[in-house]
Amino acid sequence: MSKMFGFVVRLLILMSFICAGLGCYKCFIDPDDSVRLCWGHILSKYNIRNIDACFKTLDRIFNNNPDVTKAAKVGRGYDTILKEIMRAEIMPIVEEFHQNMNNDTVYEVRLQAAADTFITMATGLPRASGCFPPCGFQAHGTVYNCMTCQYDSCEFPLDCPLQEITVGENNRTQMWCHVPFVLPSDIQIVWRYAEIKTMLMDRFAEVTAGTDKLFSIPLARLEHSGTYQCEIFSQERSLVRIYYHLTVVPYEVVGHAELQDVFEKALLPAGQFLLLPSIPPFSLLRLPSPELLTVCLASLLLLLFLTLGALYWWPSKKMDCEPEQEREPHRNTYTLQTV
Ligand SMILES: *[C@@H]1O[C@H](CO)[C@@H](O)[C@H](O)[C@H]1NC(C)=O
Ligand SMILES: *[C@@H]1O[C@H](CO)[C@@H](O)[C@H](O)[C@H]1NC(C)=O
Fold it and tell me: Which of 9, 175, 232, 311 keeps 20 to 30 A from 326, CA to CA?
């Protein structure tokens, strides 16, 4: 009967330890080993054996210690090394303490030393790599988490920031559903469209579903303006949502903008370009720059010189022609003949 009672008590203690939440110690050490470790734990204040107090000490030193949890945030695959480090620290103490009485001060000192060694060694392990911000579920770049004894994903939101694109009416535009991280081979891509600028899921209507990463508009019309969303799935699970807000600029505005662009470039010193997203029409009335005025003035002067040159040349040519006519032998002969 007392054996049965002891078993139930032990079970209750184990349950309370397991249910109290997870931590780096609990991820790697069996509950049975913990019971063996805490078997001879003496509360020196009362001089009694108390296993529960020992579990509380373990929680404080390992499981609820943010330094331990932080040190254990290693990259994929390194949880096995974490386990080796933890067991190399704890198991010798388990063997040493089992069936032996030790007071709480001794436990405290030994466990704290074990935790400090764990922190030092775990901190030296490779951290998570291959997380590409700012968005998407990235299973490859993952971080170990002692609070769940599992790997977390890279902890980015599924929704990528909205990107603005502008296209002239009747021109061509393309949108790509590209992500910088590795995707599984079985992906499905859904393109959706919303007339307004939004990232709210219920505003979108599905346009295509398949494996096409490219959405192409060969001839943009004004009614193509709006938000385009591409969502990538793998096995029904959403991995990322990319957003493009497309603005189609009416043809006439495009014409004006291009004219203005040419004008502005002419006014700027070589190598400099103005970025003009929208140009108010009145800016067309701006006065030309001194450089342009100089060029105009020089052209005018050149024209003047040419005119003067022509005026000078014309009579002189006339004078040249007259003797030439006289000197011409055939003419002369003819004249003589006619006379
Ligand atoms: C705990 O045990 C150690 C070693 O046996 C001893 O030196 C120490 O005085 C004890 N501490 C208390 C508070 O009993
Ligand atoms: C049209 O698109 C081409 C390239 O796709 C670009 O070079 C050109 O500037 C665009 N024209 C307008 C009016 O947007």
Answer: 311
